[in-house]
Amino acid sequence: MILDKFLNLQGTCIQGYRHLENIGIVFQIESKNKKAACPRCGLESDKLHQNHRHLVKDLPLSGQPVYLQVNRRQFKCGNCQKPFSEELDFVAKKRTYTKRLAANILEQLKEGDILNVSRINDVTEEEIQRMIEDIAEEITEPDLSELKRLGIDEIALVKGQKNYCAVLVNLDTGKLIAILEKRTQEELRETLTGWGKEVLEQIEEVSIDLWLPYKNLVKELMPSAEVVADRFHVMKQINQELDEQRRAEKRAVEAQKNKKQKAEKEAKLEVLKRSKYSLLKNEEDLTEPQKIKLEAIKEKFPNLKKMQELKEELRKIYETSKNPTEGLLSISEWLAKSSIVFTKSCQTIRNWFGEIISYFERRTTNGVVEGINNKLKLIKRRGYGLRNFRNFWVRSMLSWHLVC
């Protein structure tokens, strides 16, 4: 009785146990039930056909590996006249580990990678793969009944290969709603229409990056929703154009052939060395060496000076404008003096002007989505055993929609 409570497997009794050196503790157990229901007709039977014992790995006890020698009995159905194996609540059919061990391992996978988790728990990577597949069937669709603000973004499944997954997030709860294997208008359309008209009509805001197919689809399926161009993606484009100019300045200096200006050339190249983050980081976040580097850049490169200062000015507009009118006027003024140096970015801002100004209404951003994307990237880095999109999807959804 004490051992039964210690093992804590409801409906079972321990018939014996032994400690095997270099292996662990082995408990012999079987169900307390005297009958079992036939899976074909549902009739209960107490006619024992045969005993069938097999070994199942369980959670460790005090650091000791634990195995259960389970008697999964076979009964004979009085109605069907065919034998059947009894169902056991603690272990699934054709599995060599208990459900609670699988749940514990899946919980570890939220913060670890398959290879290390398999070593720590003395299970194979293939067994963990089966655990992932099994739990995938239990992941249910998230509740969308209260969805008001939707964030849509993307993440690269494999860096550098341009195979982007679309990421959908509830901006109010901070929960991942879905990951789509492809970032295409067709796949996103299929997912959104699958939510139903009622859900789409209740969505008030959709925050997106600066990708036109997202915008067109949202306006088509959710015409009453406010489309907001995510401020971080606007600033990302500004930073990209600033960095392009930094690299162009470096190429121009390197191309100089005048030997008399050799010292000046070397001085400029030294200033540009490791200068990227001094230009792109928020000014208040710069380290002292980066501040010194920034001042040196401004002294030598007037174009970079102007672009960096305009970049900071736009960022402050986002942070300090109190309402849409103030935001509209400030960004309009910024555009007037930035068009010469930020040619591409200014054109993008003009193309998305209404959606950019919408930010100042409720200050909705994809910041929550970016946080989720960072967590997804961590899952990717840890997921040495993630061989395909489905595994990535399961590992990701585990972190938000399943408590093991």
Automatic annotation (TrEMBL):
Positions of the Transposase IS204/IS1001/IS1096/IS1165 DDE domain: 150-395
Identification of the protein by name: Transposase
Residue ranges constituting the Transposase IS204/IS1001/IS1096/IS1165 zinc-finger domain according to the UniProt record: 36-80
InterPro entries assigned: Transpos_ISL3, Transposase_DDE, Transposase_HTH, Transposase_Znf
Pfam families documented for this protein: DDE_Tnp_ISL3 (PF01610), HTH_Tnp_ISL3 (PF13542), Zn_ribbon_ISL3 (PF14690)
Coiled coil: 235-275
Keyword match Nuclease: no
Boundaries of every Transposase IS204/IS1001/IS1096/IS1165 helix-turn-helix domain copy: 86-135
Keywords: Coiled coil
The organism's place on the tree of life at top rank: Bacteria
